[in-house]
Amino acid sequence: MDKSGNGKRENWGSRFGFIMAAAGSAVGLGNIWRFPYMTGENGGGAFIVLYLVCVLVICLSVMIAEFAVGRRTSLAAVGAYKTIDNRWTFAGVLGVISAFFIMGFYPVVGGWAFAYIVKSFSGLLSSAVPIGDVFGAFISNPIQPIFWMIIFLAVNVIIVAKGISGGIEKAGKILMPTLFVLLILISIRSITLPGAGAGLEFLFKPKFDVVNGQTVLAALGQAFFSLSLGMGCMITYGSYLDKKEDLTKSALLVTMMDTGVAILAGVAIFPALFAFGMEPAVGPGLVFVVVPSIFAEMGGIGAVFSVLFFIALMVAALTSSVSLLEVVVAYLIDQKNMERKKAVIVTGAIMTFTSILSSLSMGLMSGVKLFGVGFFDFFDILTDKIFLAIGGMLLAIFVGWFMKKEDLKDELTNGGTIKFGLFEIWYNLIKYVIPVAIAIVAIMGIRSIEQ
Length: 451
Ligand code: PHE
Known about the structure:
Layout: H1 8-26, H2 29-41, H3 45-73, H4 77-84, H5 89-102, H6 106-121, H7 131-140, H8 144-162, H9 167-191, H10 197-204, H11 213-226, H12 233-239, H13 247-275, H14 286-296, H15 300-336, H16 340-360, H17 375-402, H18 405-412, H19 423-450
Helix pairs in contact: 1-9, 1-13, 1-15, 2-11, 2-13, 3-4, 3-11, 3-12, 3-13, 3-17, 3-18, 3-19, 4-5, 5-15, 5-17, 6-8, 6-15, 8-15, 8-16, 9-13, 9-15, 10-13, 11-17, 11-19, 13-14, 14-15, 15-16, 16-17, 17-19
Bound molecules: phenylalanine.
């Protein structure tokens, strides 16, 4: 990249920083914890094919659009909508609400990862109790997971109070590649276990007879969640982007990294799962049970790998959750004139409360239901199946019908300095195809849930 030999490097440096921040937001629990268990619950290969179609046809274009809106206005989500057309402020506010709801359960799982770092040290892998039972007992305990969740949230609060750019970025730059390398190592181990072939078949031989409206909605929701789309997060990141950066290329890179990590997590987990004779549809415990089981097979060194894995998972979760917290905090600062510290503390307190409810819904409060599900599932389903997809649909309608085509062309081609021959295709996708596609998937999904 350094063509001139002086000065130019800085440019590359900022680009790298942006890509890492956006990829840091995207790559998180969604890829390593959620993607595998959604795949397991939705029949394997067919779900992955649907997921990839959603990413390619819908989410990639939505990401480009979010970057474009952010960079055009240089404002975070709510402000961005508001300046372009103030009737659309609600769409930004919907994103802030989504961030709140996601942070109603995300810190609970972040806390599990935190706890598993310590548990890996203290005999989880060699315990006489089956690893699956350890997990079940842990998450339903009324105190322990709440303790770890609060630590996880406290780290978020400290980071966001200081502004995101400091330590977390550095930690991310080291630990994200570590996570990647570990996933590759785990995958190799997993594939070479006797009986692993069934897992690969489960992942890569799609059986479409298991697909219904719900599967498609689950795939779409997962794609939005995993890519941090449909709630203004990528609008906010786009607002920091330099006018010279190529939006399309950046979106493509982030999407490829995110999808790569998700697929890799699947390859790490399913071959081992089948080799151990476990059930693919075990739900949220999947990564916390299968990965330690793989490491337990390795003897003493396994504990070291396990510690490393959960540190990396926790940091991946952290680089995502700070972006969620920041969406709410930026809103309070920009629109409500709140001081950063105060905004962070108020937001953190509310999230602690909702996360306590979510954590307790795994045990003590498992009988308390909202619309037939516990708090954890309620927050999860509400965002992943409804809010994010609707947020994405609103964004597409807004960009396609309420922004000027020339302005968009200007953003996507950097004022005509780069060629974006696919512009018309992107524009028509955003304007016509994506809003209709999301509406159809949402209606089909909701109808098949009712049945
Ligand atoms: N993409 C993150 C993950 O995969 C979660 C997230 C969703 C972050 C929405 C920001 C906005 O874990």
